[in-house]
Amino acid sequence: MDGISTCSCLLRQVEFDFMTFEQLGVIAPILKALRKKEYVHPTPIQGRSIPLLLEGSDLLGCAQTGTGKTASFAVPILQKLYLSSYEARKIRALVVTPTRELALQIAHSFTAYGQFTGLRNTVVFGGVKQAAQVRALQRGVDILVATPGRLLDLMNQGFISLRDVEYFVLDEADHMLDMGFIHDIRRIIAALPKKRQSLFFSATMPPAIEKLADTILTKPRRITIKPEQTTIELVSQLVYFVAKQDKSKLLLRLLETKEDMDSTLVFSRTKYGADKLVKILRRAGWKAEAIHGNKSQAARQKALGNFKRRKTNILVATDIAARGIDVSNLSYVINYDLPNVPETYVHRIGRTGRAGAAGVALSFCHQEERAYLKDIQKLIKRRLSVVEDHDFVEKQAFSRSPKPRKYKRFSKRR
Question: What is the rounded CA–CA span in Å between residue 347 and residue 324?
Answer without folding.
Answer: 10
